[in-house]
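Q: What would this chain look like folded?
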Amino acid sequence: MINRVHAARLLEQETQMADEQRQDPATDELAEDALDAAATDDLAAQVARLEEQLAAAQDQALRAAADVQNARRRAEQEVEKAHKFALERFANELLPVVDSLERGMELSDAEDPAIKPMRDGMELTLKMFADTLGRFQIVAVEPHGEPFNPELHQAMAMEERDNVEPNTVIRVFQKGYTISGRLLRPAMVVVSKTPTGKPASPSIDEQA
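A: My prediction, written as structure tokens:
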């Protein structure tokens, strides 16, 4: 009987102590602080992950924008090259027509009244051709009397001349042309050289 009473008292004491611990404000505060700290750590980890994902997305967006810009620039360059190539091909096909008209003007007699209407028509056609070429930045190279320039001229022959400086263009077989400042066709020319027996100056190769 005594043992039962003693056991009941011990059980009552343990229950009371547990109730006191549950009712202890300090214990409750510690528990709440622990929960808040865990929640804060979890939130910080989530924020860090979101910031990493945002940075990765921004980097991908910048790379995609750069790729699009590079692709657009390459496409524009290809289109520009295609236009230039097409224009150069067309101009090279057109130049022989201009050459033929100019040769016809040179060979015809300007004083002959019988062919005057024909010459006037040829002259008008040549002017129209020249205006059209000019609108597309195609400019004739007429170097007669100028120093020989291997970047624009092609020497077909050399002739000795006393009264002309060496390496001067003294005759033009065929005009040259440039397009937008670039060489389209070199001028075919004859170049002067120092007469035999006189001190020679630096000259170009006859086959240049």
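The chain is about 60% helix and 15% strand.
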